[in-house]
């Protein structure tokens, strides 16, 4: 019965339009009232404890680094570099979009920010070259969701804090799956674009290619510094976030000189707004998380799926299907915060590697960014690229299918994630 109260109160609040953070708090209050332990101090203490975590400091700094990267010209130089390398290939601008998405993912970790930057620059170029615009928008949206999978990733930070799993291990484990997602998108793009009447860009002369590489070198050095520092043990993920923000500020203001002092208040304000939304969600979710544990809800769910505990692959299939459905209705961060405390006890009981589960779980929640009715990334690319949302949904379909196939491939073959993660760590 406790499980029913939890589900009805949470979904009921969201159904009538209550923001997710307040829905989580409302759900916690209802659970406390049902269990006869209502106490406002529990809400306050858990919200404060939720924010009082050193690891979460990485979130505002990575968000700031992403904003500084876009304002300082790093994103544009990465795209120019990709165009110089592969723009002349048939379908090359699509490959440019994925190549740039993967590189930018290793810098900012924000699906919405990366998608907006790519859509603003590439959609007009692809339309001019004769590409199918809705399909191009769908490709850019699908490439944008790689950002939370390849480190540094705010989604991994939130999951790591909620699940008490090493964020460094999550970062290292996300590299190979993120690259596989990119490869799958390139293969799908080349398959669907082969019959289109498109005009490839002229081949970039070697001198200009070297010049584009040189101009992008400072931007390309950012992921090396972040991941290299974490891998070498020089910095923690939180400290790496500070290094990333300072590096992006330095490159944007001193090297590229596109970021002016007058731009900083706006950039910092935007980063602060985004941080506030995420942190409030985290705080509110910690209230529900504590009460989920107190109400023993994971044990109730385990009772329903106990026949699958001894069959981890089938259990993962079922869980991934459930998360896929939930992701159509919830944004990435709320999905992580609501489901993590419910699923982690089950994962541990089944003997599934928590890091491996975390990577697939985040991949799945990212796929939810491409599925209506919420589909945050779909809305971003629709707004920035000025493409009707319905057409973007049609255009993204083959790439969405490709990402789902990659997800379930990794369910069947967990060593693709586990082995490289252990080696990299």
UniProtKB/TrEMBL annotation:
Compartmental location: Cell inner membrane
Record-annotated membrane-spanning stretches: 7-35, 47-66, 78-103, 109-127, 139-163, 169-193, 214-234, 240-256, 277-297, 317-343, 355-380, 392-413
A GO term from the CC aspect: plasma membrane
Keyword Chloroplast: no
First-listed, main subcellular location of the protein, grouped into a coarse class: membrane
Membrane topology: Multi-pass membrane protein
Source superkingdom: Bacteria
InterPro entries hit by this protein: DctM (IPR010656), TRAP_DctM (IPR004681)
This protein's UniProt keywords: Cell inner membrane, Cell membrane, Membrane, Transmembrane, Transmembrane helix, Transport
A Pfam family recorded for this sequence: DctM
GO molecular function: transmembrane transporter activity
Limits of the TRAP C4-dicarboxylate transport system permease DctM subunit domain: 7-415
Function: Part of the tripartite ATP-independent periplasmic (TRAP) transport system.
Family statement: Belongs to the TRAP transporter large permease family.
Subunit and interaction comment: The complex comprises the extracytoplasmic solute receptor protein and the two transmembrane proteins.
The protein's name: TRAP transporter large permease protein
Organism of provenance: Rhizobium meliloti (Ensifer meliloti)
């Amino acid at each position: 019965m406790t499980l029913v109260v939890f589900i009805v109160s949470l979904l009921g609040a969201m159904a009538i339009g209550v923001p997710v953070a307040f829905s989580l708090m409302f759900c916690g209050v209802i659970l406390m009232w049902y269990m006869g332990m209502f106490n406002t101090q529990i809400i306050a203490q858990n919200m404060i404890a939720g924010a009082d975590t050193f690891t979460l400091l990485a979130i505002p700094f990575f968000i700031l680094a992403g904003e500084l990267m876009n304002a300082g010209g790093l994103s544009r130089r990465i795209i120019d570099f990709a165009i110089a390398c592969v723009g002349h290939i048939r379908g090359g601008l699509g490959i440019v979009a994925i190549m740039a998405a993967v590189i930018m993912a290793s810098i900012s970790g924000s699906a919405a920010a990366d998608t907006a930057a790519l859509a603003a620059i590439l959609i007009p170029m692809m339309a001019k070259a004769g590409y199918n615009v809705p399909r191009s928008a769908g490709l850019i949206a699908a490439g944008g969701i790689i950002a939370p999978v390849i480190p540094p990733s705010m989604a991994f930070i939130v999951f790591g804090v909620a699940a008490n799993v090493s964020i460094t291990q999550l970062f290292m484990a996300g590299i190979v799956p993120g690259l596989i997602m990119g490869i799958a998108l390139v293969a799908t793009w080349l398959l669907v674009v082969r019959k289109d009447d498109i005009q490839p860009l002229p081949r970039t002369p070697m001198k200009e290619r070297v010049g584009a590489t040189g101009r992008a070198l400072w931007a390309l050095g950012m992921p090396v510094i972040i991941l290299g520092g974490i891998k070498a043990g020089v910095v923690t993920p939180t400290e790496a976030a500070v290094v990333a923000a300072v590096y992006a500020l330095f490159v944007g203001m001193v090297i590229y000189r596109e970021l002016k002092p007058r731009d900083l208040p706006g950039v910092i304000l935007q980063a602060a707004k985004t941080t506030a939304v995420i942190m409030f969600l985290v705080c509110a979710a910690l209230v529900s998380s504590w009460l989920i544990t107190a109400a023993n809800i994971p044990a109730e769910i385990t009772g329903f799926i106990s026949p699958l505990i001894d069959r981890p692959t089938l259990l993962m299939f079922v869980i991934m299907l459930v998360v896929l459905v939930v992701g159509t209705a919830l944004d990435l961060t709320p999905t992580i915060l609501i489901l993590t405390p419910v699923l982690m006890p089950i994962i541990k009981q089944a003997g599934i590697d928590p890091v491996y589960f975390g990577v697939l779980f985040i991949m799945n929640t990212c796929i939810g960014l491409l599925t209506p009715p919420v589909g945050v990334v779909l809305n971003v690319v629709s707004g920035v690229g000025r493409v009707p949302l319905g057409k973007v949904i049609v255009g993204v379909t083959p790439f969405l299918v490709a990402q789902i196939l990659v997800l379930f491939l990794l369910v069947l073959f967990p060593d693709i994630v586990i082995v490289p993660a252990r080696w990299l760590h």
